[in-house]
């Protein structure tokens, strides 16, 4: 079995994903040309097999998600994607078929996000498959949407539905809990798909830039990520858990096993947007999101009680022991 | 033994290395503001313990080198560093003392290169320590120095001395070859230091931008990297190996074991600059390098014999079986 060398591999699988900025991936570096008056938003995520995904997940899904989680960060900052860099540490025994499928998934997400590959590095590792993606996006100067802009009185909103990713991990993983059998086939597919194939909310970027006071993507769970946003903004919040949007499948799972509600609120892998907006900007924010085909739910309000998040469930306060899912 | 969590770790060790663009590493993304009329050069390298360095190398040296090899790429492209992103996959059993030393080395190189940390990600891995750095630098629009600009008749030059890194790896590694004992203590230190602590030729960037027709850094060996530059430019070259500059220590090693000459010419880890310049620009190129404290040696000439590199040693042609050191 012969495998292509690094240069052949780049030419065959990665050069087609590179835009003009990648110079065909034949030089030592790529080139980014930000438009006049724009700044470049930079974000990076590393993913390790056995930690962030299963080593035997479909290669196309691994690649898609690695890029999607970075695009999700760009979207939350109000940025339009410009390109990304991939470093790939391949474990012993990789096959060309594996790599071809990986490149296919990467190319599909790069095209959906209009985010070409501009460079990278491929090495071998005696350890598990490890990927690192750095993604770039542009925003008009001074307009990156920060975590730190939430003000007392602002409304707290989330996009889409919460908890599907964390529940989907259980559905997709090797040890199926009892409640999984109570879901319909469609429900199981929905949750597993949400875990495996997060869809970055790129269509929301412009609306966030125009109307949000603060935003971040929800990657480590709503409760924990909210705590980070509040800390950065020096504010608190009151959240009505009954208004946190759930998919039909998530609702069915929680009916079957009520303890799952906690997982939905604190588990990772949502890749939805958590944002705050002033009461005045709220109608325009919701309208712009609707025009982009994305639903926003109002789940609470920012308070001046710095760093304190209060959660209400059916009128009673709920306290979370562990706020955030940490991969670290 | 308690270890800090990810957020504490970032605040304690990495936030001090972040410039204003890193936003104190408290947001999801960093921000780069290229000056008007400038473009951004992007380069990335991944390094894996046991592949690119020894797991028990001093942590400060590992960090220094990881950033230095990226800065070396920027320098070769004529770019001034603007910032970098680090993703770090820490193996089981890392200690805070290890990380503190790592951060110290990273901070020192970031300061020397005027290249602040603007973001990143820290994760855990069941495998070996794995780092990935993406570095950014700026060049006036259209002025990135490419691999592809060499023209027949141009002169071929290298900075500094060649082969120290590859010989230094032997000196530094666990199995000391016989010739190592024939070196002086100072000679051994010199070579090991050149392997462990490459010094990116940032001071050469402006001169390359002004006077080089093509350039790249030598990371995978002079012979192999020259082949890449020639291929990108669609030209050939004639190289006089007797004019390839060697350090005193490398010369002593080669006297003791003549076969080492091949290692010096083909081994990796030089992190010197390989460049071409027209006969007309040559005096200005050399003068600008000298003003920057860097010596350049003229080692050959570009020919129109596309893709063919001819090497002469004491008037006779020398053929290299394996051109390039590949980590992959």
Give the gist of this structure.
The structure is a homodimer of 328-residue chains. With 328 residues, chain A is an alpha+beta fold.
The multimeric state of the shown protein is: homodimer
How large is the radius of gyration of chain A?
Answer: 20 Å
Strand content of chain A: 25-35%
Secondary-structure content class of chain A = alpha+beta
Overall geometry of chain A: globular
**According to CATH, what is the topology of the largest domain in chain A?**
Phosphoribosyl-aminoimidazole Synthetase, Chain A, domain 2
- Mean model confidence by pLDDT of chain A: 92
Order of helices and strands of chain A: HEEHEHEEEHHHEHEHHEHEEE
Summed up, the helix count of chain A is 10
Describe the protein's architecture and organization:
Chain A is 34% helix and 25% strand. The radius of gyration of chain A is 20 Å and the shape is globular. The longest helix of chain A has 18 residues, at 59-76. Chain A folds into 2 domains: 6-140, PurM-like, N-terminal domain (60s Ribosomal Protein L30, Chain: A, 2-Layer Sandwich); 155-318, PurM-like C-terminal domain (Phosphoribosyl-aminoimidazole Synthetase, Chain A, domain 2), CATH 3.90.650.10. Chain A has 10 helices and 12 strands. Chain A has 328 residues and is of the alpha+beta class. The first copy, chain A, has helices at residues 6-14, 59-76, 96-112, 164-172, 185-196, 205-211, 222-233, 248-256, 260-266, 282-291; strands at residues 30-32, 38-48, 80-91, 117-125, 130-140, 155-159, 214-218, 236-240, 272-277, 296-303, 309-313, 316-318. A 7-stranded mixed beta sheet of chain A has the order 7-9-6-10-8-11-12, with helices on both faces. Chain A has a 4-stranded mixed beta sheet with strand order 2-5-3-4. The interface between A and B is large, with 63 and 63 residues. Chains A, B: ATP binds at residues 120-121, 147, 219. Chains A, B: Pathway: Cofactor biosynthesis; thiamine diphosphate biosynthesis; thiamine diphosphate from thiamine phosphate: step 1/1. Chains A, B: Its EC number is 2.7.4.16. Chains A, B: Residues 27-139 form the PurM-like N-terminal domain. Chains A, B: Mg(2+) 2 binds at residues 45, 73.
């Amino acid at each position: 079995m012969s495998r292509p060398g690094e240069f052949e591999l780049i030419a065959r699988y990665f050069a087609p994903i590179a835009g003009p900025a990648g110079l065909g991936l034949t030089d030592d570096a790529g080139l980014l040309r930000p438009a006049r008056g724009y700044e470049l938003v930079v974000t990076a995520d590393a993913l390790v097999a056995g930690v962030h995904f299963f080593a035997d997940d479909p290669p196309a899904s691994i690649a898609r998600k690695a890029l999607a989680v970075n695009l999700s960060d760009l979207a939350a900052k109000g940025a339009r994607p410009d390109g990304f860099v991939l470093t790939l540490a391949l474990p012993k025994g990789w096959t060309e078929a594996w790599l071809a499928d990986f490149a296919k998934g990467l190319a599909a997400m790069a095209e959906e996000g209009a985010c070409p590959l501009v460079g990278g590095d491929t090495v071998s590792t005696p350890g598990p498959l490890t990927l690192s993606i750095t993604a770039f996006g542009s925003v008009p100067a001074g307009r990156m949407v920060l975590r730190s802009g939430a003000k007392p009185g602002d409304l707290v909103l989330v996009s889409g539905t919460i908890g599907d990713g964390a529940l989907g991990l259980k559905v997709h993983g090797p040890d199926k809990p009892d409640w999984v059998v109570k879901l319909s086939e469609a429900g199981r597919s929905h949750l597993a798909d949400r875990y495996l194939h997060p869809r970055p909310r790129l269509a929301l970027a412009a609306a966030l830039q125009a109307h949000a006071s603060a935003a971040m993507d929800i990657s480590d769970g709503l409760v924990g990520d909210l705590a980070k946003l509040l800390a950065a903004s020096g504010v608190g919040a009151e959240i009505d858990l009954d208004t946190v949007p759930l998919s039909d499948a998530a609702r069915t799972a929680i009916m079957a096993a009520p303890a799952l509600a906690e997982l939905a609120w604190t588990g990772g892998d949502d890749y939805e947007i958590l944002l705050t907006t002033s009461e005045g900007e709220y109608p325009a924010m919701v309208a712009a999101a609707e025009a982009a085909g994305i639903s926003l739910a109002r789940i609470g309000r920012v308070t001046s009680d710095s760093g304190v998040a209060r959660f209400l469930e059916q009128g009673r306060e709920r306290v979370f022991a562990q706020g955030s899912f940490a991969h670290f």
